[in-house]
Automatic annotation (TrEMBL):
Its job: Catalyzes the specific phosphorylation of the 3-hydroxyl group of shikimic acid using ATP as a cosubstrate.
Record-listed substrate binding positions: 34, 58, 81, 138
Subunit structure: Monomer.
Cofactor(s) this protein requires: Mg(2+)
One Pfam match: SKI
Free-text comment on the cofactor: Binds 1 Mg(2+) ion per subunit.
Native organism: Desulfocapsa sulfexigens (strain DSM 10523 / SB164P1)
Pathway involvement of the protein, from the record: Metabolic intermediate biosynthesis; chorismate biosynthesis; chorismate from D-erythrose 4-phosphate and phosphoenolpyruvate: step 5/7
InterPro entries: P-loop_NTPase, Shikimate/glucono_kinase, Shikimate_kinase/TSH1
Localization per record: Cytoplasm
Name of the protein in question: Shikimate kinase
Catalytic activity: shikimate + ATP = 3-phosphoshikimate + ADP + H(+)
Length: 171
């Protein structure tokens, strides 16, 4: 049985979008950690942050991580931008880091017709100066846990998913 693929990377880099494209191409199923947290808690991510604070959200991420490791196989898992920090990340599956420069990420988010909504639902993107620093400080940490790194800047989702299939030997 194939192991899971765990997509990590900064907010808005395209983890969810890539997971869906990969699922379509490989026949594997795709799940998203933020979606799992929202359905489990019956709250939106932004509500969890505003009502209970970031530490509660990180606890929920750890619960999801334990469940994924125990129960989920043969699945493409897209994660939130801070999920890579869970202690068992490398036990969940093959970790694929999607990398783009901060400016490229902002460009793709702002190019979207729903840009305002996309920013609102990501509390850590609301202050752009802080988000830029976060991107910089996380870069070595993402690289440290990743098995594979994919450059996504300027690429189509088709090119990105084909690169992952090749590097992770998914087909
Ligand atoms: N390579 C890309 N080219 C064009 N648009 C992209 C690209 N990557 C992401 N997007 C768009 O940016 C937004 C964030 O993508 P998403 O998959 O939700 O990111 P993440 O799951 O990493 O936060 C979406 O609207 C998506 O369609
Ligand atoms: O980078 C982060 O710490 C976060 C990223 C978000 O997910 P996306 O990467 O899907 O935006 C979401 O999990 C939460 O707002 C925290």
């Amino acid at each position: 049985m194939k192991s899971n693929i765990v997509l990590i990377g900064f907010m808005g880099v395209g983890k969810g979008r890539t997971a869906r494209a990969l699922a379509e191409k490989t026949g594997m199923f795709a799940v998203d950690c933020d979606d799992l947290i929202e359905s489990f808690s019956n709250m939106k991510v932004r509500e969890i942050f505003s009502e209970f604070g970031e530490p509660r959200f990180r606890e929920l991420e750890q619960q999801v991580a334990v469940w994924l490791q125990k129960q989920v196989r043969n699945t493409i898992i897209s994660t939130g931008g801070g999920f890579f920090n869970v202690p068992n990340i490398r036990k969940i599956g093959k970790v694929v880091y999607l990398h783009a420069d901060f400016n490229q990420i902002l460009e793709t988010i702002y190019a979207h017709p729903n840009a305002k909504k996309k920013i609102k639902k990501r509390p850590l993107l609301n202050d752009l100066a802080k988000a830029r620093t976060l991107h910089e400080s996380r870069l070595p940490l993402y690289r440290n846990v990743a098995d594979i790194e994919i450059q996504v800047g300027g690429k189509t989702v088709e090119q990105i998913s084909n690169a992952i299939i090749k590097k992770a030997r998914l087909k």
